[in-house]
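Throughout our pipeline, every protein is held as a single compact record rather than as scattered files. This encoding replaces a full spatial description with a residue-level series of whole-number codes. The remainder of this section carries one protein's record, kept here as part of the documentation.
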Amino acid sequence: MKLNYLSFFIFILFSIPVTIYAQNPIKGVVKRTNGDPLPHATVKIRGTNIAVSADENGSFSINSKQELPFFLQVSSVGYKPQDFQILKVDSTILELTLVEDALLDQIVVTSRRRSEVLQDVPIAITVIGGQIAENAGAFNVNRLKELVPSVQLYASNARNTTLNIRGLGSTFGLTNDGIDPGVGFYVDGVYHARPAATSTDFLDIEQIEVIRGPQGTLFGKNTTAGAFNITTTKPTQVPSAKAELSVGNYNFIQAKTSISGGITKNLAAKLSISGTERDGTIWNTKEERKYSGQNNLGFKGQLYFTPSDKLQILLSGDVSIQHPAGYPLVIAGVTTTERSAYRQYAKIVSDLGYQQPKINPFSREINTNTPWRHNQSIGGISANIDYKIGNGTLTSTTAWRFWNWDPTNDRDFSELSALTKSQGNSRHDQYSQEFRYSGNITEKLSGVIGVFALSQNLQGLDQTEEVGKDQWRFVQTNNTGTQALYSTPGLLDGFGIKTNSTIKSLSAAVFAQVDWEFLNHLHILPGLRYTYDKKDVDYNRVTYGGLQTSDPTLLALKAAVYSNQQFSINTDNNNLSGNITLSYRPNDRLNAYGTFSTAYKPVGVNVGGLPTNSAGQADLSLAVVKPEYVEHYELGVKTKLIKNLLINVTTFNTNIKDYQTNVQSPQLGVNRGYLANAEKVNVKGLEVDGSYQLERFLTLNAAVAYLDGKYVKFTNAPLPLEETGHTEVIGGTATQVAFKDASGGRLPGISKWNISGGAEFSVPGSLATKVGRYFIAGDASYRSDYSSNPTPSKVLNVDSYSLLNARIGFKSEKFSAFVWSRNIANKNYYEQVQAAAGNSGLYAGVLGDPRTYGATLRYTF
């Protein structure tokens, strides 16, 4: 990535010449909503560079020779910018009022597909402003999770990403492309189907709404667990620009810039660029290079056409390119399995002439012999058309998005040449169309109705998995008989598979929800959704390499490691689901509600390789995975006890039938896992979040989530790592089993306790000629321990951990400068641990970032 191009672009922005106009005086005073003067506000004539600052009493005088009518733009740090139309110029003293930007009880959301005050919406929602996210260093969803306790995101790389809300949404662990996410991810109304979208850097974010619980009657795609509804800032007619530069340890550098302005009377444009680089935090002693770094470049362009008050058209295009130093896992430990002593990890590596790797994961060192690579490009184009009809708005959202994935992984996690290469190269294209009408039908009745269609084509392109010269010892069960022939020189050297697969899917839905105030202050909100899903799969896996021989015994040994596999399947299903909510809103201080909803996640398909049956053929009974069916109950109350103190409480209980879970197979060739159904799971919990704002001096927020997730019934769960090789007496014979009853065990990825909180204290002041506020802020988060394996395990668990972040600096209307640090205590922690392929006892972990620190400069003009 060439950040010098970005620097040149910023230089051009700063070099824009100013124009001076003739002068006619306009006098006025800027006030707060309570009538008090607002000192040092900026008053600017829209469309020009003529601007002044109000004095200590909020008074200003500005000169202009503009043709009437024209607009005054009034702004001040901590307040919402406001345009005031000037129809005539005389001696009258204008009184201009600004509203505080962060009044907690005035936050507006669009989660119900129309603009509403957050506290009036009977849905559990957390809202994070784009500026707040940027200041906290949350420049992507992975970092945002520290601010929202009910969000869980686990990623060993962009493809293998799990995004959950309240512990539900996607399968935990290695991604299988044949399953749909249960958490909707929307940017400016466009649904993003691939989890890799969560890894890209935010560009000009205005607001992030995290919506908890099923919302299928409001959004186009199924949202069985919740949704991220992200909106970006739109282009403006008034010329404006923003530049931001951050630097930090590990040679971190991040540059962002955007420029916006009018092209013609009703057409505005905006271009945004973001670049991020950082050295890796993990050292490969064998290659002598760093991994787990960042190298991201993103572009976004928009055209905003507003020919009338009724019609708005937004055209957007974006692309994000990521070529990081890859994201390796470190060896986290070795456990003893129930296999024979001959098949324990220590014995295997000893027989190969290696020493068991040093188990010191937080030394941040690896010793792998295959380079790690996780390159991707992701982007698309979209058109949003809003047309006001009657008391509502008809919206059309049309989009095409793509994703290219080019990885390399060393899946034995060591210097051994065992499972040396794993490359899940993919290409994804999606086309989506949504038509939606929302608005007020009568004074007491409002609602939304829409139709949605999504077509996807996901291709696996020569996806490669290859073993090396040491793999024979991992698959050899003993050194006698036929098994002894696994040591035949060159038998498995460079032996592997190449897989080409295609999933073509279609999802279509009709949805509607109304809000009817049938009694004074008492609302009923019924909703209904009909969904149709269809998936067609072609899968073709072909072996290559290894010893070229015609010996049937040796060929049989090779086939036990990798074999050809080909199948084609198609499946479809439909579903009718809905919800009903009762909401009591006697005043603007209380909103109490209860919800019952049903939801559905579509049928899944397996394209990571299928386990084989006794005849050595693909077990097609596992090719299709049944849909999930959700029953959800929720009670909530939103309160404003005193001015600027908000406390919201939610309790919920969710039951899922045929829960789709990812099963790690001991067989090579399916090491990415395959999907299966657990008969029933339950997640229940309690969430409490509060916010308080004392004028502009102090802002506090805190949130606590208690989650209890269990397999109610899972009779055919895979064995945990330490029980691999377990035998039971069946029919009088000791028989090795591959599954167990995990009923009553906890679901993976769910901490019982999740806590976050933050505070910011600021005082007025000046920096050189800039009038603004000095501030100090911090946020902290805590997660209790959680299971990191589909079946509860004694070893594959992540211990509890706490993180502390802080920043201190100065901010004004146009300029900010601050220093920051994340993970100040340099806490060592895992985000995920997982068994290595082959289940010999080795397991690896994804490390959280160490302490990072740096400084940020931001300028708006």
Q: What stands out?
A: The chain is about 5% helix and 55% strand. The first strand starts at residue 25 and ends at 31. Confidence is low (pLDDT under 50) at residues 1-23. The helical segments are 3-14, 130-135, 141-144, 345-351, 471-475, 552-561.
